[in-house]
Amino acid sequence: MVRSSNSPFSRTTSLTRFRKRSEHGRCTVARLTRPLTDTQRKAIQNAADHRLGTFYDTGFNINSRRQFCSRFVREVIDEATHIQLGKVETFATLLQDNADPNLAFWRLWYFGRIPWQRCTVTPASLLRSPDVRVIFDSQLSDTA
Predict the structure, then answer these.
(1) What does the angle CA 88 – CA 93 – CA 97 come to, to the nearest 5 degrees?
(2) What angle do CA 130, 136, 139 make, to 5 degrees?
(3) CA distance 109 to 79
(4) Environment class of residue 72 by beta-carbon count within 10 Å: exposed (0-12), middle (13-18) or buried (19+)?
(5) What is the mean pLDDT of the chain?
(6) Where is pLDDT greater, at 62 or 101?
(7) 10 Å Cβ neighbour count for 17?
(8) Burial level of 66, CB count in 10 A (0-12/13-18/19+)?
(9) Which of 41-50, 63-72, 98-107 has the lowest mean pLDDT?
(10) Can you list the domains of the chain with their CATH numbers?
């Protein structure tokens, strides 16, 4: 079972249903580089369970009372292990650093007003963290 934050709220779902929500069923699995203690494993389960039922934040605001996928992972791991995954950055920085930002999409998403100074964290940022290593990437295995 997978605990995840998705619309309309965070919940537990099967891996099959989780993958059906992604493009072509793709997913990436990563593990922390440091081994977890039994206490940390239990703390991760408790931190994830505590967030179940939290409404999804379509605004991707790290300071919202709502939740979104990468924030869910970041906060669960931080609460349980004190490891902060990913880089918190503003939309201005995030879109500026993107080689091909689709500003038309984001303008539409935010009804014409992109919240440039809003802080967020992205799934890609979590995966680039030095504290995780990718152990499976279905996109890579699809092309092999």
Answers:
(1) 110
(2) 110
(3) 31
(4) buried
(5) 93
(6) 62
(7) 11
(8) middle
(9) 98-107
(10) 2-22+29-86+121-143 (3.90.1720.10)
